[in-house]
Amino acid sequence: MRKGSGQADDPAVADQRAEPAITSPSSTPWLVAWHGDLAAWLDRLGWLRTTSDWLTAVLGPVRERYQDKLVVELLHGGRWAGHPLHPALSDLPIGLWAGVTVLDVTDRDPAPGRGIDAAGMLSAAGILAASATALTGLNDWTVSNDQDRRVGLFHGLLNTVALGLQGASLGTRVAGHRGTARALAGASLAVTAAAGYLGGHLVFTKGVMVSRVAWAIEPRQWTRALQEAGLPDDSPTAVVAEGRQIMLYRHRGTLYAIDNICSHAGGLLSRGPVADLTVTCPLHGSRFGLADGCVSRGPASQPQPVLPTRIRNGWIEVRGSQPAPRRPAKGRTQP
Question: Which residue, among 299, 279, 305, has the nearest Cα to 81 in the 3D structure?
């Protein structure tokens, strides 16, 4: 894990370390590796790092000051939506502006006049949708980290350029310069597609805003996690059981076990404070109830898995929420 970050390097199996692949420079075709090279190139841009650091310094304190406000959590989507709003909203401007291009290509009016036509209506609707999308995206950006934040910033800058081009297209369209408007709308859609590709990279390649505990089911049977004497009262303690990181907590004789990897961005919950049987992630401030794992404050949108516990022979034992199926007795047939 990164020193002092409170974040696991690999949220899925945090105690395992992937060995570097041994390949020769010519063994990977360019057509297969270009997207990874693109992300690495963007991450090396000095001005992008500087801008990202500056925005983080400005927006970070603002988010922390207002993170308890309902509107901030609603912009993420939060526990009510079950997933971030930004990816869903992003479909609106893309679809509307694609419609603009379709109407422009199929328009056969030999002498279009001034004013707003059907393509202009779609363009204006897309501009409004893009504004809402940008607001939710900026809110999500403030709770991202490292390279994801820098690539996300470039993604946002491209979308800003696309929004500007679409606005210029709408203005020239209303003024009657339809040829210029069509060219600007086409350029806007092309830039939007590039931005959308980077957004897909962040979600599907980097797992940004994807639940980090979606496949956490181990251990499949009761497994010793810690000697009972090793767990002080009211002190979050991290343990590992069959490769799964778990946070143990005891309060007034009652044991609690919850997945130690925050579902939002992989923060280690055991490094966060616990108050009223609610743990706060040290990374971005998400809060989870220890009894049921429910989200009481975002940006997390998914609850934390809780694990059954028991004490046997002086050991605290835990088990995943899905126990291994029992093997049928020898000679018996399953119904």
Answer: 299
